[in-house]
Design brief:
The chain contains 15 helices and 15 strands. It has 574 residues and is of the alpha+beta class. The chain has a five-stranded antiparallel β-sheet with strand order 3-2-1-14-15. A hairpin with a 5-residue loop joins β2 and β3. The longest helix has 31 residues.
Length: 574
């Protein structure tokens, strides 16, 4: 085993359990990396033998952060298998649910999961509230909270945290690390906006409760949506509820346009070198989503479908989710076992058999020459690819979509960097913000589409013609896809005699966090870390910057080990 290995396990500010091992070269840059998913759940096995109409309720609980997206992919998979077309209102409501998730999730990611990799919270104590107010008025001139007194109050609150020895939500980070470049006033402004975004995010998600009954895990329905629309009723979605939704969208537009995007561009301007770090694979995949006419017509998607290889923005390649030669999963370096003679399987033929061959916990290091992850290695036409906001923005930009070109070119101009800067950690972070700007305006457009349908007398939200299993074929299969905030997501289902015979899920983090494959190709996380300079192996904030730019999600503790396996620090969030 290498003696120059950094281990971060688990990576914090994500959902689930992720271990990163990075091997430093003599030049202080990462020359190899391992991404290991250390938790196994086996949901595909749990679903076997169940009623396919119930699958979405199980799948939605894969995650409580990007809630709703797995339910959507699941109902679409079953609808595809059974030949069900949902009513227009149901498709619009599903778009509203998805776009609401995007806006909330992306704002949360920037302020609460990723910004602390760039913002030194403790440095904010040195800030002058008057100078901070002047900076805020310059960065976000239309945002109302920017007085010296306001920032003085935030600084006092933060000071009380520090003096008590309890930083609360800001505890356990590399404060004071030389990689932090923001001046104290910018740090104080960012801390204030962190708190404002924390208060706001619980409001926007009320849209899910209107159309889905609750959040997390709103309700869906095979054939449409489970809500009822009656504009004159007190017990259904009525005019009052629709007006509330409109107000929430308008508030979200203000947050995105006048808080999130200005802050993102302001922070990015202090870290131009990160436009050349973390690019990784250079291959990108997007399934596309947000249909405006028909759910199975990619030409109508707001997010276009396609793949880009080798950073070639001059060509967007077509993608077919049902072609058995396009998407396959390998288990060469995974803790699974395939049937004899099988090395890669399309999800329709997917096989989930756990087979742990790793070291006995607790262990110092993983062996990159053997299995080292509970994640499989999905590949598109044999290529390792990256999915997520950057992939979607690049596919939209390369496809010539004017709305994508407008937001991308405007941001590149403000930062003074070329389009190639998108192939980086900074580009990945910026793409998420640009996408949010598109999404919040699309959200209002989808709301207006729904209202227009209702005014025209269309109140239908479900197609129940094939609800009864007696109307189903004896054997059928289908695929349901969506673009989750973190990237391309698809569910594949086989239904036999009214029950689920096989179910396979390939999630965004399976694409991005996958281990290397039989050809030695790294997954997206691993590839993005290669070449990254690390100033202090004991405080590898550079690793966190790139990994968090993908937005894996949330965690509750972190253990950091040195090359001898000695515990350097243990960070516990209570």
């Amino acid at each position: 085993m290498a003696s120059n290995r950094i281990v971060v396990d688990p990576v914090t500010r994500i959902e689930g359990h992720l271990r990163i091992e990075a091997i430093l070269g003599e030049d202080g840059k990462i020359r190899d990396a391992l991404s290991s998913g250390t938790m196994w759940r086996g949901l595909e096995l749990i679903l076997q033998g169940r009623d396919p109409r119930d699958a979405w309720a199980f799948c939605e609980r894969i995650c409580g952060v990007c809630t709703t997206v797995h339910a959507l992919a699941s109902v679409r998979a079953v609808e595809d298998a059974l030949g069900i077309t949902v009513p227009p209102n149901a498709e619009i409501i599903r778009n509203i649910m998805e776009l609401t998730q995007y806006v909330q999730d992306h704002v949360i990611h920037f302020y609460h999961l990723h910004a602390l990799d760039w913002v030194d919270v403790v440095s904010a104590l040195k800030a002058d509230p008057k100078a901070t107010a002047e900076l805020a008025q310059k960065v976000s001139p239309k945002w109302p909270y920017a007085s010296p007194g306001y920032f003085a109050d935030v600084a006092d609150t933060l000071k009380r945290f520090v003096e008590s020895g309890q930083l609360g939500i800001f505890q356990n980070a590399y404060w004071g690390h030389p990689a932090y470049k923001l001046p104290p006033e910018a740090n104080l402004m960012a801390v204030a906006h962190y708190l404002e975004a924390l208060r706001w995010q619980k409001e926007i998600i009320k849209i899910h409760t209107v159309f889905g009954g609750k959040n997390p895990h709103p309700n869906y329905l095979v054939g449409g949506m489970a809500c009822t629309i009656d504009l004159e009723s007190d017990n259904a979605i009525n005019v009052e509820r629709l007006n509330m939704v409109k107000g929430l969208i308008q508030e979200a537009m203000a947050v995105v346009e006048h808080l999130y995007l200005p802050d993102l561009l302001a922070v990015a301007s202090f870290y131009p070198e990160w436009a050349g770090i973390g690019g990784g694979l250079g291959n990108y995949l997007a399934y596309g989503d947000l249909p405006t006419t028909h759910p199975n017509d990619p030409a109508s998607f707001r997010f276009p479908r396609g793949a880009i290889l080798g950073k070639n923005l001059a060509e967007v390649l077509p993608v077919d989710l049902e072609n058995p030669e396009e998407i396959k999963e390998e288990v060469t370096h995974s803790w699974y076992r395939y049937p004899e003679g099988k090395t890669a399987l399309h999800p329709y033929e997917g096989h989930t058999e756990p087979h742990y061959t790793g070291p006995k916990p607790p262990y110092e290091y993983l062996d990159e020459n053997r299995g080292y992850s509970w994640l499989k290695s999905p590949r598109w036409k044999g290529h390792a690819v990256e999915v997520g906001p950057l992939a979607r923005v690049l596919v939209g930009y390369a496809s010539g979509r004017p709305e994508f070109k407008e937001v991308v070119d405007e941001a590149l101009g403000k930062l003074g960097v070329p389009a190639t800067a998108l192939f980086s950690t900074l580009g990945r972070t910026a793409a998420r913000g640009l996408e949010t700007r598109l999404c919040v305006h699309w959200l209002m457009e989808e709301y207006e589409r729904l209202v227009a349908n209702l005014k025209a007398g269309d109140r239908g939200v479900a197609n129940t013609e094939r609800w009864d299993p007696s109307t189903w074929p004896a054997s059928c299969k289908g695929v349901g896809f969506t673009e989750a905030p973190r990237g391309a997501l698809a569910h594949w289902v086989h239904i036999e005699n009214g029950k689920i015979a096989r179910y396979q899920i390939v999630v965004p983090s399976t694409w991005n966090a996958s281990p290397r494959d039989s050809k030695g190709q790294h997954g997206a996380y691993e590839a993005a870390l290669l070449g990254t300079p690390v100033a202090d192996p004991k405080q590898p904030v550079e690793i966190l910057r790139t990994i968090h730019s993908f937005d894996p999600c949330l965690a509750c503790a972190s253990h950091l080990l040195d090359e001898a396996g000695t515990k350097l620090a243990e960070l516990v969030i209570r």
